Amino acid sequence: MRMKERFLQIFGRTIDVVFATMLVFITLGIVVGVLRLFLNLGNVMTTKAVTGSYLPIISDVLTLFILVELSRSLVDYFDANRLRLSFIVDAGIVFVLREVMIKLYEHKISVEEVLALSLLLLVLGALRVASVLLFQREKHMLETLRGARQTEDSSADRLSSGH
User: Fold this and answer.
1) For the chain, what is the domain count?
2) How far apart, in Å, do the first and last CA atoms of the chain sit?
3) Residue 27 has pLDDT above 90, yes or no
4) 145 compared with 30, residue with greater pLDDT
5) Residue 51 reports pLDDT greater than 60
6) This prediction's pTM
7) What's the distance, CA 10 to chain centroid?
8) Each residue of 140-150: b (16+ CB within 10 Å) or e?
9) Which residues contact 22 (CB under 8 A, 6 or more apart)?
10) CA–CA separation, 39 vs 29, rounded Å?
């Protein structure tokens, strides 16, 4: 085996181990986050003011969504051997929305921040749409290639069998 191939093999295994480790920690974070979410329900029951007790729960739920999107990205890596942009962009969108919702709820956001975060959401949304369109285009191209190969294979089979 050539040195380059050996290096790429070691690199691939190293990346797999790193991503698997990250996935384990994200999964543990999700489990711990869900448990803490249930434990915080006691605070909601004992607090007289309804609005003040929901902010931590909303923040925690949105943080769990981010962790779920990141874990989906890592799981997909093991299936397709690449990171899909759409999962990462989804996590970014949820993260920005989380920040906007929290700051709006606390009334601690300036007009400039709203505009900047809105622009960021627009860019992330455009990236998301573009990644879906490119994925669909790539999928269509692969299906077309497979169909052409199957047609060639069946023609070759007919020629070899004498039909």
Assistant:
1) 1
2) 44
3) yes
4) 30
5) yes
6) 0.69
7) 26
8) eeeeeeeeeee
9) 74
10) 15
Sign of the CA dihedral with 53 first, then 55, 58, and 59 last: negative
Report CA 142 to chain centroid distance, whole Å.
23
Across the range 36-42, mean pLDDT stands at 83
Residue 160: what pLDDT?
Answer: 63
Helix H, strand E, coil C: the string for the chain is CCHHHHHHHHHHHHHHHHHHHHHHHHHHHHHHHHHHHHHHHHHHHHCCCHHHHHHHHHHHHHHHHHHHHHHHHHHHHHHHCCCCHHHHHHHHHHHHHHHHHHHHHHCCCCHHHHHHHHHHHHHHHHHHHHHHHHHHHHHHHHHHHHHHHHHHHHHHHHHHHCC
Answer yes or no: is pLDDT of 151 > 80. Answer: no
Average pLDDT of the segment spanning 120-146? 89
Q: Which domain holds residue 22?
A: 3-161
**In this structure, how many other beta carbons lie within 10 angstroms of the beta carbon of residue 53?**
16
Q: How far apart are CA 62 and CA 40, in angstroms?
A: 15
- Cα 23 to Cα 131: distance, rounded to the nearest angstrom: 23
- For residue 157, what pLDDT is reported? 63
Confidence of residue 128 (pLDDT cuts 50, 70, 90): very high
| Amino acid symbol at 64 | L
Name residue 110's amino acid. Answer: S
